[in-house]
Amino acid sequence: MKLSFLILFFLILSGATEGGEPANPKETEQQGNEAQRQQQDSDKQTAASDKPIIKQIIRSTSDGPTSDGQTHQNEDHPWKPTDLAIAMFTGCLVGVGIAQAVVYYRQAKYMRRGLRLTRQAANAAKHSASVASQQTEILKAGQRPWIMFQVDDWGLPDRHDPSLGFGGVMKWSAINVGHSPAFLTELVVVTAIFPYPLPDKHPDDQSPQQCAKFIIPPNGKHSSSLPTVVDAGAMQRIFDGKQCQVVYGIARYHD
User: Fold this and answer.
1) Which sign, positive or negative, has the C-alpha torsion 57, 62, 63, 64?
2) Is the pTM of this model over 0.70?
3) Mean pLDDT value of segment 218-242
4) Handedness of CA 161, 164, 165, 166 (dihedral sign)
5) CA of 237: how far to CAs of 129, 155, 164, 200, 233, in Å?
6) Looking at the predicted structure, is the pLDDT value of residue 64 above 60?
7) Which residues of 160-171 are buried (b: 16+ CB within 10 A; e: fewer)?
8) What is the pLDDT of residue 106?
9) How is the chain split into domains, by residue range?
């Protein structure tokens, strides 16, 4: 039973296969072309994947020891962009440093020039102040009182005899030659015999005369007299040119 069933099923399948339509020849050709193209792509990929291996093998072979026993390197050492940037940056820093040095030098030069000009200005100001002070002193001196002594009459005898002395009255005046009044506080007038030529040392101050404090106006004068006595010996020395009669005065006043 089972055997007959299997035979029957086999016959049905065979009939169906023989009774079907044959395959389309165009579709069969397209399928063949597509299979060939896929095979070519696969070959290309295989060749591409094999290139690094071949290149690595060639490089390993060329890097081996040469006939001289030395190792030959074919690797290049190109100029890296990072090295160029570092070199440019270093150059910029050097340029900036040089520029700063130049600027500092110029600033120092200008500072020295400024100090020199300031010193010159200070010296000029000091000189101007000195000149102004001198002018002020001159102005004050021109405006202040000045007392000058003069002898109006020596009181000498009419007949000069070297062997005889004489006595007389000398007349003198204190004149204000300044431009402002002189307020006198002390006044001394003395006559004496001094060696000739006169010594550089001034005589000692004498006691002030008993006189009232008074004012001598500008171009005004105060006159008085003073007794003088010259003995015979002093007269002979005066005639011989060894001594002389001197009149001097001391006046103290304020303006």
Assistant:
1) positive
2) no
3) 85
4) negative
5) 54, 19, 12, 20, 6
6) no
7) eeeeeebebebe
8) 82
9) 81-143, 147-254
- Cβ(252)–Cβ(184) under 8 Å? yes
Gap between the Cα atoms of 48 and 35, Å rounded: 20
Cβ contacts of 215 within 8 Å, gap of 6 or more = 181, 182, 183, 184
Question: Quick one: tokens of 4?
Answer: 């007959």
194 forms bridges with which residues in the sheet? 244
**What architecture is the 147-254 domain classified under in CATH?**
Sandwich (2.60)
pLDDT at 138: 66
Contact by Cβ (8 Å): 188, 207: yes
Task: Look up residue 137 and give its two tokens.
Answer: 């002193």
Contact yes or no for 244/202 (Cβ under 8 A): no
Q: Which two tokens stand for residue 76?
A: 């290049």
